[in-house]
Design goal:
By secondary structure, the chain is of the alpha+beta class. Helix content is 35%, strand content 14%.
Length: 295
Amino acid sequence: MTQPTLIQRGHAGMSVLPEPLPVALALAACGVPVLPLRRGKVPFGNCPACAGNACGGRPNMKTAGPCRCPRVCHAWAAATTDPAVIVSPPWAAAWRRAVCVAYHPGAAGLTVVDLDDADAIAWARTALPATRTVATTRGEHWIYRGTMASHNAVRPGVDIKSSMSYARYLGPGTGHLADLPDAVRALTVKKPSPARPAPPAATVPVGRGGAECPHRTPAYLERGIAMAEQRITEARSTIHATVYRTFLAVLSTHGRCGCLTEAHVVRLFTAAQSKGETLRHCTDAWTNARTTLGL
């Protein structure tokens, strides 16, 4: 596999990363899709034309989707290996403001196990096979060859970043890339919930004539998710509170009938990240909203 060459070998003797743009171009030349991160180490927000995914968006795509916006929009989905795009005027302006480089691991054929603290690192050393390791501010990135769905908080201090996610590039690291082990994939498998008594009949009322729950009507659900995205992306202040209240509203309407899918949650998280929220903030807000509603 030749795509993640820079991550496998890196720049000999590099102890401090150079300016973001040269790093991005070097990674892109190795087939690793890159995007700039602004202050707060988050992606640049969508431009006005793409706010609320009015452009058609690409939050559910593994690569660039129908939107052809030349700006750095749609967070991880904007990641590219095209040098002409990377140095284009809209992107050049973003690189001048960027604090670091991020990449889309899944599109590069990689999975990053993000270990946030010493306890998580200690667990990984006993539970996971050795692989390429990159030091982070508080912990380590363990990088494996192979892709999977991204998941947050699979255990204390452990996130998985692969498809539909981004990771900061923090240098070449040390060690050789190992294949993605089943032990990492198993972290995302939900254990069966304890058996619960069957709910009483007709817990969810139906309309006249036995119509399906309206939450399962595609247009009804789509309108609700689109309105939630718009509410987040148009927020001018109190972003944390707006994200939480929006998640709470979505869950209060759609959280009990089973119609929400992972794709819907990704759309909401992407909208929040475009406003500067981190993946951890999104996860915490979602969890807190579920707890408030008793879900």
